[in-house]
């Protein structure tokens, strides 16, 4: 293919140009043989290559490694883990002849009910951004494109093709766009995928404010924007807004509309050329990577999937150190009962476009059999069935109870069935299936040595039995090798280190989106504003089941010291060091989190915001310093009048093992060259006096007597002063205050 795009543009007919603006088929761009322009493949997904040959998903996808899903990858808080998975995905994409991998998904988890929460990282935009930057940089460094999705506010499945997400400017910027902004600026994704839904009355695929004003003009994204599949409504409006490629294709009707709009003078051909240029640029990028189609390194990547999964599985409870089941502990034990349909019918990923056809799939029962059969006699009973009626579940439960009575250990595999959480539908509640809850409660009463393993893509309500069981492991949806990873953890060959990237509330009603999820009559109002996840729970001091950033280990860590500055110059990077000691018996990894809080913000801010994290591995008894850094700009909040602003102010730096387990808090004076210039003639005098710049301007013009005299009028807009106290304060003096302030 000719590399000079301008040259190609000159040779393309308008009709050919328009044909390039929609796909050639379900997964490919259009080719133009006459000019030797090839098609390229865009294929899902975020945790594995899902190469489906035809548009009707008729035949299963080609086999590929199903890595842990995003909910698990985020729980690792580990950029090295992300890098390994991303590099392996790129390798498999190349082997399968794929040019662009349709991921990562970074939509924020606004409600635990979101059907695709398993496919997204977190409730926190900072954590989501860090992980996505590493993912995209690694995949693209290996010559494969990515598609950062779904831009934006695709936070629910209910009416996802049409719902209008009504979001105020500040939460839109600070929560729902924040991760996209960082990733666009730091990782330069080859493509961005525009979402199905509307945002503030405009479909994402034709939303000029989002696609052009923000994404292109403000953030400088000049790469391609692709629609989600069938997400384009008005093709000409979308093109004008900056949507380059409509997928899937082909769409001759829309192509013709583009031709007609140009011929009618309603659409400048330059606009068409801009998008054609981005498509040709994407094809050239894709072509610059040789893709020798070859065998997948299936065995090697299965082992990698196992190692990675073990870093993403969270130990939520381990009363009496029941776990791990080490050889020493098992010496005088002889039996292990494995309970649960999910132990055999493994749930390891979510249904929908991200679904991978795994190269191999281990079951939990077999993994435990391989691990423990030399020391323990294993028994299995389903205990429940997601397909059975109540009565049969009762029988299954009774059978399991009888089996559990005389066993040394019981491991129950519980979790959410595919039919309640997936792409395309949200959950109705946070409950596990009632048959599982009943079974766990009653088995716990019969046998104290009970371990519950969960497979679920988002927060679940565990209150019915959490106090009655000894150990709980949150395994999420850990990919094809998840069962092996869990067996490694249960046996103590891997010490769990993962931590929650989503808060687990006690009940759904405690979640801040509860009153406004999933919306009605075509609109969903993000009434909670910036207060989502831990930002809300901490503001309300709400009791939680498990907080954001929480996870246990088989060992213990002590936070011995924090070294942090007490002053930060404008633009200076904040650098701190934390001394961590492993005071337990096992080698382990600790995820350390750094949160900030601003003392006197111009606009209300959450009590804490995650701004750095790190992970350190320590032998038993070892202690090391861990360095954490925060960019000055990350101390900012978004002010609708002033944009992102770091205000000169006192901040708190909090070091935590979780968002609710803060080990150190230090005050720091932060300087800034930015000034919040939001005062106007309509602003009350009292607010002028409360603002550092406002006060400077007022006191340069008015004497302390005049300010004193203004007493009663301070809550009134400053310009009213000359009405109330014309003999003390003239209109000229008010104007002079405004002028001085503007020039500060
Ligand atoms: C789906 C999903 C998107 C996926 C695309 C292609 O509907 O929303 O994430 O990449 O269509 O399968």
TrEMBL record:
Keyword field contains Lipoprotein: no
Pfam families listed in its UniProt record: Fn3-like (PF14310), Glyco_hydro_3 (PF00933), Glyco_hydro_3_C (PF01915)
Gene3D superfamilies hit by this protein: Glycoside hydrolase family 3 C-terminal domain (3.40.50.1700), Glycoside hydrolase, family 3, N-terminal domain (3.20.20.300), Immunoglobulins (2.60.40.10)
Membrane-spanning ranges: none
GO molecular function: beta-glucosidase activity
Domain named Fibronectin type III-like: residues: 590-659
GO biological process, one term: carbohydrate metabolic process
Keywords: Hydrolase
Family that this chain belongs to: Belongs to the glycosyl hydrolase 3 family.
Protein name: Beta-glucosidase
Organism: Halanaerobium saccharolyticum
């Amino acid at each position: 293919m000719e590399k000079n795009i301008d040259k190609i543009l000159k040779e393309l007919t308008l009709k050919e140009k328009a044909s390039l603006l929609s796909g050639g088929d379900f997964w490919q761009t259009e080719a133009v043989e006459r000019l030797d322009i090839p098609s390229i493949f865009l294929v899902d997904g975020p945790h594995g290559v899902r190469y489906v040959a035809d548009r009707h998903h008729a035949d299963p996808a080609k086999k590929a490694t199903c890595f842990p899903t995003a909910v698990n990858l985020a729980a690792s808080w580990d950029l090295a883990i992300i890098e390994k998975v991303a590099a392996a995905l790129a390798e498999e994409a190349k082997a399968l002849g794929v040019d662009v991998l349709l991921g990562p998904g970074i939509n924020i988890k606004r409600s635990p009910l979101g059907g695709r929460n398993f496919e997204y990282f977190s409730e926190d935009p900072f954590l989501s951004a860090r992980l996505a930057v590493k993912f995209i940089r690694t995949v693209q460094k290996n010559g494969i494109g990515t598609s950062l999705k779904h831009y934006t506010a695709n936070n629910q499945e209910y009416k996802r093709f049409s719902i209008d997400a009504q979001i105020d400017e500040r939460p839109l910027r600070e929560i729902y766009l924040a991760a996209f902004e960082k990733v666009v600026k730091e990782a330069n994704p080859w493509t961005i995928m525009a979402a199905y839904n509307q945002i503030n009355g405009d479909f994402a695929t034709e939303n000029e404010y989002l696609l052009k004003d923000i994404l292109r003009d403000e953030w400088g994204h000049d790469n391609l924007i692709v629609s989600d599949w069938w997400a384009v409504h008005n093709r000409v409006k979308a093109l004008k807004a900056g949507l380059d490629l409509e997928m899937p294709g082909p769409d001759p009707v829309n192509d013709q509309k583009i031709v007609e709009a140009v011929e009618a003078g309603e659409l400048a051909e330059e606009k068409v050329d801009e998008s054609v240029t981005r498509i040709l640029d994407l094809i050239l990028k894709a072509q610059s990577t040789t893709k020798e189609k070859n065998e997948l390194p299936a065995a090697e990547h299965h082992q990698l999937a196992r190692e990675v999964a073990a870093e993403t599985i969270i130990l939520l409870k381990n009363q009496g150190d029941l776990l791990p089941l080490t050889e020493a502990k098992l010496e005088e034990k002889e039996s292990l009962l494995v309970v649960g349909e999910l132990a055999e019918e493994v749930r390891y990923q979510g249904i929908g476009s991200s679904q991978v056809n795994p190269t191999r799939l281990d079951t939990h029962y077999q993994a435990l059999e391989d691990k423990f059969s030399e020391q323990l006699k294993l028994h299995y009973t389903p205990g429940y069935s997601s397909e059975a009626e109540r009565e049969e579940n009762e029988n299954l439960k009774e059978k399991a109870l009888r089996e559990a009575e005389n066993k040394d250990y019981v491991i129950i595999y519980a979790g959410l069935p595919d039919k309640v959480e997936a792409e395309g539908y949200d959950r109705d509640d946070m409950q596990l299936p009632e048959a599982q809850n009943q079974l766990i409660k009653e088995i716990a009463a019969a046998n104290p040595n009970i371990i519950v393993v969960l497979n679920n893509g988002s927060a679940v309500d565990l209150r019915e039995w959490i106090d009655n069981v000894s150990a709980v492991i949150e395994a999420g949806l850990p990919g094809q090798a998840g069962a092996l990873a869990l067996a490694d953890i249960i046996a103590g060959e891997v010490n769990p280190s993962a931590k929650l990237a989503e808060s687990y509330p006690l009940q759904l009603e405690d979640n801040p989106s509860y009153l406004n999820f999933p919306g009605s009559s075509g609109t969903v109002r993000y009434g909670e504003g910036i207060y989502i996840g831990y930002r809300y729970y901490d503001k309300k001091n709400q009791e939680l089941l498990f907080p954001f950033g929480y996870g246990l280990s088989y060992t213990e860590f002590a936070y011995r010291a924090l070294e942090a500055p007490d002053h930060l110059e404008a633009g200076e990077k904040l650098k701190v060091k934390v001394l961590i000691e492993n005071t337990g018996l096992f080698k382990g990894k600790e995820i350390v989190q750094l949160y900030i809080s601003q003392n006197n913000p111009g606009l209300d801010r959450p009590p804490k915001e995650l701004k750095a994290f790190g992970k350190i591995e320590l032998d038993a008894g070892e202690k090391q310093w861990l360095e954490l850094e925060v960019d000055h700009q990350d101390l900012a909040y978004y002010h609708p009048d002033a944009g992102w602003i770091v205000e000169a102010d006192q901040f708190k730096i909090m070091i935590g093992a979780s968002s609710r387990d803060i080990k150190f808090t230090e005050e720091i004076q932060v300087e800034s060259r930015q000034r919040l210039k939001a005062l106007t003639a309509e602003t009350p005098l009292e607010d002028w006096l409360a603002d550092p710049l406002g006060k400077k301007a007022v006191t340069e013009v008015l004497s302390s007597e005049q300010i004193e005299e203004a007493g009663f009028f301070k809550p009134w807009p400053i310009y009213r002063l000359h009405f109330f106290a014309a003999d003390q304060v003239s209109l000229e003096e008010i104007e002079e205050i405004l002028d001085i302030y503007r020039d500060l």
